[in-house]
Structures are given as structure tokens and as C-alpha cells.
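Lab channel / #folding
Pinned by the channel admin:
"Please post every new chain as: sequence first, then the C-alpha cells as a reply. Keep commentary short and put observations after the output so the thread stays searchable."

First post following the new format, from NK:
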Amino acid sequence: MSNKYQTHSAQEDDTVIVPVDLGARSYEIKIGPKLLAQADTHLAPFITDRHVIIIADSNTKALYQSDLADKIAPLCRKVDCLDVPAGEGAKSLAQFSALMEDILALGVDRQAVLIALGGGVIGDLVGYAAASLLRGVDFIQIPTSLLAQVDSSVGGKTGINAKVGKNLIGAFYQPKIVLADTDVLATLSPRQMRAGYAEIVKYGLLGDADFFEWLEANGTRVIAGEKEAVSHAVMTSCLAKAAIVSADETEAGRRALLNLGHTFAHAFEAEAGYDGRLLHGEAVAVGLGLAFEFSAYLGKGNSQDSGRVKAHLAKMGLPQSLADLPAGKADAAILAGHMMKDKKTQNGVLTFILVNQIGDAEITSHIAVNDVIDFLESRA
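Reply from TO:
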């Protein structure tokens, strides 16, 4: 069992507390069971006597929104509930505009607090709304998907998609607290659990080979929702991300490592049109395998590690090849064109996260687009 980051966490009853150290913007990630049922206690310092707006998608609205509102209402000056459609399509300029108008219609001031209740889409959308509303109001992350609990709710990346690419409109804006109730994961479908699991694998591959080895032995338990395995996977992922974000909040350097596999993944998502056929974690799974293969193609890494990674993804029921994806058969030049719009691209030159071996990734600039096209064509 990996313990690389465990000295940076604290225990409070059944709750693990992971600090994100960012000076005046520091906050805690609380991970454990029954946190939603205790939301009034955990959120009291941030919502007492304030106007709180709970924003959910159409799925989490039915599951949790009313209960959360009832739980915190005695503390708040006012509680309102809003919802948006479920799915990646909600991260659009049109939906962002509609949400902002709905929030403003409630008569908010700068003491308002937005609560993002849902998966990664809700967290990104609501976080960006909080960063923009009245030039910045407080917000709280309550992630209800595995992917959001281990990745997107932590670190302050907020934003929406543009037609030409994913997350190209947004801001770095940190929440006041992240409340990751592991009990809510029981409502997820196996497909959603597998998609979230891809982001967990990423942490082992980019910097913690021991954790990846633990996942090889215990990954099926995580996807099956076994509480001990899930808690360990969520905690270790959050510890890893918190350490990286604390050292590099705005992705000026080391934080870019968290994009392992994502340059490929975002191209697949853009080509698929964010229409629900392809989940982010599914695209990431293929992207992780391709990152290892591309590294070997460029003379880094080794085929043994690449095979090991793809074998694990296959065992977990995740896609591993271009042919497994809705957009995977797109022309290589078209996919490379999506990559040229990636946020890490500078002066027309691509940046990739490549790997030397499992647990050892590095940021590599000056990747020629023709090399990417040739590589993708060789995998078609």
C-alpha cells in the first residue's frame, strides 16, 4: 500500500483531512462517509448568516439538493437552489450565461456563497461562475462523482468548453472547502466508476509507482465500491494533487504533470462534440496508454511499461485504443489540430507529458506536430 503522501493528512473520526496549502487561499479537503449528513457542521464557518445558492445538475438535484438545503438552512440567511442539465454539454457559454442570469435574479451580493453539488461538470461550471460573479464570491465544492472527488474538485481549475476545445475559457479560483462524501459513490453506475478510476490511475503513473502497484492489486475493489479501497484511492489521489497544486497553483511548471494523457484525451472529446458518447475518464484512459506509447515512439520509456499500463486499463474495463472511442477513427491531422488548441501549446509548438517509466513523468516541450500525426497514423 502506497504511503508516499500520507504524512500530509490528518484523521478526524472517520474523516481524512487533506490540506491544500496556498497561503491566504488555503483550504481543506474532507474525505469520508456521511459528510453530506453532517454538512451543517462542516460548512458552518463558510455559510453562517450568508445567502447560499446550491447548484446541482438534473441528476444530483433529485438525489441530494433538497436534503442539503434543509440541513444548512438554519445556519443561513437564505438558501436558494438552482439546477442545470446533466452532462458535458452544460459546460458551455450558453449555459454559463443562463446560470449567471439565474443567480443574479436571486438578488445576490458579494457575501453570497455558491455550492457546487455534483460531478466535474458542475464543479467547473459553478467555480467559474463564482470567479466571475460580482468579480468573485466564495464557493464550496461537494463532489458527487469519483472523478470529481479525486481530481476536478481539487486545485481551483474552473471553466467551460469552447467549440474548438475543452476548458479553454476559465480561471484559477480556489474553493473554501471540498467535502468528498464517499457514501454518495454508491449511486454511480459502473461506467461512471470506471471513468473516475482512470484519473486515479494517472496519479500512480505520473509520480507514485507504489500506488500504481497497489491499484493493480486493488483496482477491482475500488471500481466495485468497497469502502476501504475507495477511501484509500480517493485519499491518495487528493494527497498527490494537493502536493502538486500547493507547489504550483497556476500551472507555471510542475502542475502540468497532472495533464498526463490529457492532450490526447481532450482532442478525442473535442472531436466527439461533448455529446455524451464519450466520458472524460474514458478519453483519459486511452490517453494514458497513448502517452506511454508516444514516449516509447520518441525514444523514452519502454514497451514493457506501456503493455503493463494497457493491460491494467483493460482489466478494469476501460478503453485502451483509438478503435475503442467514438472519435478514435478521426483523421490523425484533425486530432492533431485539436491538440494545437491545447492550453499548453505555445508559439505553435506542442507540449506533452511523457514518461520515462511508471511513476516518472516529465513535461516535454517542442513536440513536432508531424511526429504526433505520424504516431497516431501508426496506431490507426
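NK: Residues 190-379 form a domain with the Dehydroquinate synthase-like, alpha domain fold (CATH 1.20.1090.10).
TO: also worth noting, The first strand starts at residue 10 and ends at 12.
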